[in-house]
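Submission sheet (multi-component)
Chains listed below:
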Amino acid sequence: MVDKIIQLEKRSKVLEPDHKTRQDWNQQILNYANQFLDQIDERPAYNEGDGREVLDLPITSTGHPMAEILEIIKKGVDHAGINPASGGHLGYIPGGGVYPTALGDYLAAVTNRYAGIFFANPGAVRMENFLLRWLCQMIGYPETALGNLASGGSIANLMAITTARDWKEIRSRDVERAVIYLTKQVHHCVHKAIRIAGLGESIIRYIPMDALFQMDAETLRQQVIQDQAAGLKPFLVVASAGTTDVGAIDPIDAIADVTSAHDLWLHIDAAYGGFFMLLDGMQARFRGIERSDSLAIDPHKGLFLSYGLGAVLIKNVKALERTHYYRANYMQDAAADDQEANPADLSPELTKHFRGMRMWLALQLFGTDPFIACLEEKHLLAKYFYQEVQKLGFETGPEPALSVVIYRFVPQQGDPDVFNQQIVDLIKKDGRLFVSSTTINDAFWIRLAVLSFRTRLWHIKLYLELLKGIVKN
Ligand SMILES: *Cc1c(COP(=O)(O)O)cnc(C)c1O
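Outcome: structure written.
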């Protein structure tokens, strides 16, 4: 048996590359990454291609050289589809990718620290909770509030909605009488979350919006009163602080008046818009946000981190714990006298990515100032575009509260929806920029979403030039 073990050790030791091999791999990966970043402004924001090259490399028993692998990544992954690292990405809600995210992930992965339970790594847990408290403080939640670093806004919203369900004691038999209030502009992940949380059969009330796509709080109040009088169980309002379609912020203070008067849970989806609160002069738009019970916010959007970080914040951490806490016998070594709440007790996850490191590293290296400047720059770029696109004869939606603009060109002849779809397709074909569209009240609108930290004035000017060329013909 010992002979066999020694033999196997030889084979398995390949998993621990020596210093020289590591250096060689690091160098190749670094060269690749540096080339990617050095050429980022020349790279298209959108590429044709179906990524099939990835399938050309079979998984073998002995592996492939790094150079061969990188070639496949280059062709199959980094030259096909949308390039979210590009400043030319102006569709959906653009991605970020500030460099310290990569370095933070690298360190987190190499050291493989476990940030789920205080006793397993007190520093890592302190770091994650410190970041959550920093976010809570930005919102104006009390010091006792906490939350969880999740993979993104969808999971953050899901955790908040399940927490609201349990705290408001919506049991299985109550679901058909339970009422949830939202607008038609709420992000689709909220609908997914409602379904996943077992609330798919509850009553959804779509509250009408004003011309700026903001929830009408007075109608909400009347609807809640009516539903309570009818013996239903209103329990949750989901408001948006920055809708995906137009960046609208619901009147949170007025909505909080309703939820506090009628004892409903107020959840705010601020996945896209939340960090705009850091801008001077922007706070008034978010008035009352601290009165909410929970909030979802995406550092992989408004803090420009790479994909993979969304936070849920919960004012009453006991509620989050009630839904997510569990202790198994084989976890009995995790001490009860922990000085910090365990992320694993506040999340469906047990073993998890140490996500705090990437955000902490970025904030510690840069400080907050460049982030705030970058957000204001994006806000102003959207406003600039809003002005200039009107000069080209486009119809527009509301003036951008944050950094999303909707606009459409109504040609003298022909179907405007078809014409605007053609514009989107032509931009995609050009490839230097990428925009997406939406349908609002049955009309096709093109969107401009400025949130990549790399989007600059020249991208917007280039886009306006392209649009000018298209509508002139
Ligand atoms: C992006 C977004 C979400 C979903 O977040 P993910 O991080 O993509 O899961 C939810 N709500 C709004 C308003 C968003 O913009």
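Remark: DSSP finds 15 helices and 13 strands in the chain.
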